[in-house]
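Researcher: Here's my situation. A collaborator sent me these components and asked whether they could plausibly form a single complex. I don't have experimental data yet, so a predicted model of the whole assembly would be a useful starting point for our discussion.
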Amino acid sequence: MKILVVDDEEDVKSLFEQKFRKEIRSGQFEFSFAFSGEEALRFLGNNPSGVVMILSDINMPGMSGIELLKCIRKDHPAAPPKVMMITAYGDSGNHDQAMHFGADDFLSKPVNFNELKVKLLNTL
Amino acid sequence: MEYFLVSIFLIQYVRSSLQTKTHFPKQDQILIYARGISIALIGLYYVFDERSWFDWFWHIYTVSLLVYLYRNEEFQSLRTVIQSFIPFIAISVLRDLVKVLFPASYDRIDYIFEVAISAAFILCFVIWFYARKQQRILAKEREERLREEQASNAQKQSLEYLVNERTIELTKQKEELQKTIQELRSTQNQLIQSEKMASLGELTAGIAHEIQNPLNFVNNFSEVSVELCQELEEEIDKITMPENDKDYIKGIISDLSQNQQKITHHGKRADSIVKGMLQHSRASSGEKEPVDINALADEYMRLAYHGLRAKDKEFNAALVTDFDAAIGKANVMPQDLGRVFLNLFTNAFYAVAEKKRRLAASGSRQDYKPEVKISTKKFDGKIYIRITDNGTGIPEHIKTKIFQPFFTTKPTGQGTGLGLSMSYDIVTAGHGGVLDVDTVEGEKTEFRITLPIS
């Protein structure tokens, strides 16, 4: 399963790679990373229909996670990837907005990786 | 004969007009003697067969009587009347002198003296009559003046009464104004305080947001590192190498793993503080709903008590409740207000436990009975909640700091210093109420929540 992680923090990459080391090694998951909303859109343009799941932060400089979500829902109406939004603790405003614009799920920081792993495996 | 009449009349006149009997008893006594002399003289006059030489006794007596009356200060007001008798006596004395010294001439002018004496005699009574009349007028005037004085006195009194009334009114107004100023001052202080608290709360939430992301990385990376250490250990088992080297490497890995666990542990601690800080910004975002305040307070009191009992089996305290059943349900945010109760009760139980511990350590006062009390009261559109403990109290110099975020007196790791600060936000910003404290160091602490109910 191809997963695109969008976050402005670059350390997210190594964290995901280490957290899902076994799954990546066994080929269950294949992670790609984008460090801004714009980069994520470019990546999606270059790899159409390849990405199954997008994990996106909401609070990012430049294009926010919500705007990214809107673009994805507009540009890929045919084969929509699943989108899971991640935001800071207890931000109910962003949660409601994300759900309104068509997010499939919602995670709050700090991300519970065991929970995320279960959710990802269920999507498989 | 006329001497007798004149003297008696004079004496009686003085006595009656001045009321000497009551006002001047000493002079009155003398006047009574004088009257006696007059009567004696008239008696002797007839005994001696109306001799002309006897008149000289009369002269001496009447002159001395006049001099006495004239010179006495007490009879000054009667001087005009007394003076009127002088001509009569003077002419009488002169006639008798002429009679003795010039008997020949006297026979010729004898009628002149008779007329003069009669005239003087009449004059006495005329003057007396006028004097009396004048005195009456004076008395009348005096009476009038007295009446006027009384009238003006009455007016004065009524004016004084008015002035008094005004003064009282003004004093009352002044006191009211002073009270208002005081109220305004305390309101201003409260506003400044709550403004300060609000900005601190915002700052706290802002800091928390900024810290949260890096803290998440610390926690996540340390967690994943623990997992990596486990994997590393498993991998090492697959390799063949001398047992000594293997144990050494495994020792290092176990140390690394323990370090990562410590990082995770302390990261989680920081995380719970950050979560507490973030609750500041959410302090007034909940929905209000009708809640039984008494039941809520009771529930959290028991929760706090059993929470502490679970940690410290020795701990014990009397729970006293004084609920006003009239409160019923009030519109509040139950989770938020519950958190306030939990904080205040936890602090109260901590304070009594701490006092007991200190007393036990110093070996005194074994009869100390920890007590935590909750009382509620509904009055004048407001709910008053008091949480009282007989614990350690709060020293005066830190009383102003207790509502500030991160202020705590508990040992490191036992309190975040956010409980009271958040409670303050919930009560003031969230419910538009008042949270204040009354405390005596070493004796008691009372937290008072005042909630308006609309």
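Model: Some features of this prediction you could bring to your collaborator: Chain B is about 70% helix and 10% strand. Chain B has two domains: 2-153, 285-454.
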